Amino acid sequence: MSDTPYLHRHSQDxxxxxxxxHYYNGMPLIPQVAPFIYNYLQRIDETIQGALKDxxxxxxxxxxxxxxxxxxxxxxxxxxxxFSRFIASLNAKIxxxxxxxxRERTRFHATKVHYVWTREFRxxxxxxxxxxxxxxxxxxxxxxxxxxxxxxxxxxxxxxxWASALGMDKHLADGLVSIPKDPTRRIERGERYDDLFRRLSxxxxxxxxxxxxxxxxxxxxxxxxxxxxPPPLSALHMEQAAHEDYEHSPEDAFGCGEILW
Length: 261
Description:
By secondary structure, the protein is of the alpha+beta class. The protein has helices spanning 38-54, 82-103, 154-166, 170-173, 194-200, 233-248; strands spanning 7-9, 17-19, 23-24, 27-28, 36-37, 57-66, 114-120, 129-137, 177-178, 184-188, 218-220. Strands 6, 7, 8, 9, 10 and 11 form a six-stranded antiparallel beta sheet that branches. Strands 1-2-5 form a three-stranded antiparallel beta sheet. Strands 3-4 form a two-stranded antiparallel ribbon.
């Protein structure tokens, strides 16, 4: 892959490609937060496709995860596997729920947990925060359920799993789990998922990430992955037209008023 006006290597990490387009594979991005890291856009797409490969109907939920004030992320060696511990705990809680349903002879639809996360910094914060999207079988979890950290709802399991990852009591960690407005999206296999992808493109933005340290800014569940490929020439032409339309439009051409979905 070679540099183009829309795509060039990151100066601090040559494995990453900075992308200045407004579309990815024909799906609109959030133009206000451009440029994007092309590798991350591809991983988001692959994760959604992986979830739809496993489940005919998928429920995606957006969650923001924060660290407690006393958490020394720069010096504490436990912070690096933090998100891995969160996912492991969440999977264990779902398995426990499945076992309980079987004991009760209640039908339970199995689900895999597909996920995408990004770690970001604000200028006024001394420690990072996480944005993540969790994708489930919609038949297992049609929504978040009761917003109570002690509940057996999906929200309760997410909140409790983050507490477990932090080594905290789940009631103390509840304020560290934030659910944005309008947090869920439901998609079906065979249908387009432009809206979900546009919203998750926020995760791939270049800004607010810390580069140059031995840590990751982005991660996803294991799915079939392809080599990073540049957008085709036809897509670049579409980018140019979209860019010109957006520059001359006083309105948000993509309806991205709530870009922090």
